[in-house]
Amino acid sequence: MKTPAKILVVDDQPVNVKLLQRKLERSNMIPLIAYRGDEALELALKHRPDVILLDIMMPEMDGFEVCQKLKEAEATKDIPVIFITAKTSREGKLRGLGYGAADYITKPIDLDETMARIQTQLRIQENHRMNLELTRRLGEIRQQAAVGHVVEGIAHNLNNLLGVVVGYLDLLRNSYDNRDRLERSANQLESGIKRMTHIVRQLTTIAEFERVRKSVHSLDVILENAVERFKADNGIETKVSIVNLQPDLDFETNQELLEGAIARLLINGWESYDRVKPAPAERRLMLDAHLEEVNGETLLRIEVNDEGSGVPDSIRDSIFDPFVTTEPAVGRGMGLTIARHSIRSLGGDLSLASRSTGGTSAVILHPLASECASIGVPMSEVAKRMSEFDPHNLSP
Questions:
Q1: Spatial distance between the Cα atoms of 21 and 27, rounded to a whole number of angstroms
Q2: Counting C-beta atoms within 10 Å of the first and last residue's C-beta, which end of the chain has fewer, N or C?
């Protein structure tokens, strides 16, 4: 059985209140009555009515002030307010709408029209609640699908790797009299076990994202450490061009996650050259950082650019899904998944796109905890440098 709607009526005229109260009761609604603005605020906070009918002309605290206070409070800001007024001027209505009113009713009150307007607001509220519930359920479905996809990928990769391990164990058993074959089998066996360990380690990393802790770090240090991690983890000796337009930037982040994400993007760019034919003489990797205004918010933009094969069309729409990769070897394809999870756990986002000049541009947008004025570089200078910066015209 549907719960009756609660309607808060706020008017300093008892006659108006009585008429509305009777009409609401006959319509199977629960009327809540207030004759002053302060009473209305207390009742709204206590009972959370579905709709508020609010007279504008009241002593001490008028309807505009009451509406403003309702919209400022987290608990009552979403309750629709219908103003009741004897004024029909366009300026008065615009003022009320500016305070957040949902509708207007003019005096003398037409009870049937009032009920129709209340019903309209109730339907809007019900649709809003349904949309929120659908959004919540859709999020759960997506999460379940993502979990299922990860589990499927884990099972597939581990099964393949276990097959490799079992196969080379059989070879070991039959290689006692052949030292070379014994050594090759042992090396392959070790490689398979390392990849299995790598998968488990990456999954552990994702599980720890819920416990992310942030502290203040230097952008210079993070970029340099990320490059060194990329080189050390992959046994690569190459020059990475770093263009940091915010050399004095200290900001709040998780150093481990951000450095790890950048390092993963660098290895992704490095491996993209494997698909370029003929193979280039040099693998250019470019790491750039500057500030960017997005919807009125200043964000740190970190780009990892390469001149490799770009984003393959076959995986363009699923590039961040776990175990999606162009590499033939099993146990690969978690790097971009973890990189995006890392950045999103820090409140930012990660996107990939093919560059018009060839290659891929991976873009991290990271929020800043402090205002730009505390960074140490005047915003006029930042704007000047950003206007001159061309990410597609870089030299290592």
A1: 10
A2: N
Q: What's the pTM value of the predicted model, to 2 decimals?
A: 0.47
Domain extent listing, the chain? 6-109, 212-388
CA angle 370, 394, 302 (to 5 degrees): 25
Question: Mean pLDDT in the chain?
Answer: 79
Pairing of strands 6-10, 30-34: parallel
Amino acid occupying residue 40: A
Cα–Cα nearest to 341, from 234, 222, 258, 231: 258
Compute the distance between CA of residue 250 and CA of residue 58 in angstroms, rounded to an integer. 52
| 207-221 tens-digit pLDDT | 555 557 889 999 999
CA angle 55, 56, 62 (to 5 degrees): 115
Assigned token pair, 39:
């009473």
Assigned CATH class of 6-109: alpha beta
Can you tell me the distance from the alpha carbon of 13 to that of 63, in angstroms, rounded to the nearest whole number?
13
Cross-strand partners of 55: 84
Distance CA 282, CA 77 (A): 59
Q: Which fold has domain 212-388?
A: Heat Shock Protein 90 (3.30.565)
Quickly tell me which residue has 């947008």 as its tokens. Answer: 365
Cα–Cα distance, 94 to 90 (Å, whole number): 6
